[in-house]
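Tokens as discussed.
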């Protein structure tokens, strides 16, 4: 039997606190209009003091399990994509496993910045296809607000907090058709967070504060080109045409990057799931959050073909093509 990964259920969690552009413009030199025009972001969510990647991940996971008609004990592998783990170690996946009240199943994190969910999904798919896992909980959870320099107007406007989850199960029908992941470390200095607790002071006079550093316009250019290429790669691998894709669920970094990918697919924006306006960039959480929203509100229907794609620090990028 050919084994496929089927998407059994999704869940999403957003912290209560909404931070608007208007509020940000009271503390840094920016405006709602500038942020909307350059990014499409109007507001984002900010985690409360007691919240962490694992606590938000638990909320999203419980929703996904319920949607799948499963209980935590049914899960035999947990993979969390996060760049903002509760602890350096143990992994957020271990902490999530404990929160879910289960033991023994393997649990580990995947670090691929904003592409963390796609990378985690890709790993999960290999386990299911190989027959070594039957039900995998895949989570993207991020607490970006604590990695931001709130005095840096070029980064603090972009990111938000949240978590999304998906439960995959084994099926004899597709499912995930394919996943494609890539990395190129030569771009490490365009988007990164220093870890000076471990590395110490670089001594170069570089800014070693533990906040997101980004050369936004450079990231933008590479992202648009790279995402165009991964769309082609994904369709070619499956012998499909652009018109075969019903929904695009992109990583939500910037509406202009999303629109460029939609254009490449010749896809009207009505077929693109967009959450960036209300959530900002939630890194590894953005795709499962968008997927969950569009499944729950009935846009994405069983049997439809969904293309997910992501790009982020590394650079690391990837895609997944799913028949839901
Ligand atoms: N408000 C007002 N002005 C701002 C600003 C803000 N929040 N942030 C930056 N600027 C200014 C810059 O200081 C610069 O001013 P200068 O010309 O006087 O030096 C000017 O705007 C243009 O800066 P630039 O970085 O070229 O703008 P941009 O059009 O590229 O937009 C981003 C900046 C960050 C919105 C855009 O580059 C972007 O979205 N990049 C991708 C980032 C991303 O998605 N990262 C995550 C990938 S997963």
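Sequence:
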């Amino acid at each position: 039997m050919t084994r496929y990964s089927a998407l059994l259920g999704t869940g999403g969690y957003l912290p209560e606190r909404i931070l608007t552009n208007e509020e940000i413009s009271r503390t840094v030199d920016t405006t709602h209009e500038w942020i909307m025009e350059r990014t499409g972001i109007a507001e984002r969510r900010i985690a409360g003091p007691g919240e962490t990647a694992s606590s938000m991940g638990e909320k999203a996971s419980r929703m996904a399990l319920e949607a799948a008609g499963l209980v935590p004990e049914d899960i035999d592998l947990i993979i969390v994509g996060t760049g903002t783990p509760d602890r350096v170690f143990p992994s957020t996946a271990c902490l999530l496993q404990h929160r879910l009240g289960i033991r023994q199943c393997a649990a580990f994190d995947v670090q691929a910045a904003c592409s963390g969910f796609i990378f985690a999904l890709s790993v999960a798919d290999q386990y299911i296809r190989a027959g070594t896992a039957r039900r995998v909980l895949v989570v993207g959870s991020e607490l970006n607000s604590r990695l931001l320099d709130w005095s840096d107007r070029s980064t603090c406007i972009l990111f938000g907090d949240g978590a999304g989850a998906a439960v995959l199960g084994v099926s004899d029908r597709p499912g995930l058709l394919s996943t494609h992941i890539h990395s190129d470390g030569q771009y490490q200095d365009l988007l990164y967070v220093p870890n000076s607790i471990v590395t110490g002071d670089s001594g170069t006079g570089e800014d070693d504060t533990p906040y997101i550093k980004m050369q936004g316009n450079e990231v933008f250019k590479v992202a648009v080109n790279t995402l165009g290429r991964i769309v082609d790669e994904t369709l070619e691998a499956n012998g499909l045409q652009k018109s075969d894709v019903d929904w695009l669920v992109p990583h939500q970094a910037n509406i202009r990057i999303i629109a460029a990918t939609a254009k490449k697919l010749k896809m009207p924006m009505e077929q693109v799931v967009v959450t960036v306006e209300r959530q900002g960039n939630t890194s590894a959480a953005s795709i499962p959050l968008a997927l969950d929203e569009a499944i729950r509100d009935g846009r994405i229907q069983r049997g439809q073909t969904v293309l997910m794609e992501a790009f982020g620090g590394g650079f690391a990028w990837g895609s997944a093509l799913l028949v839901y």
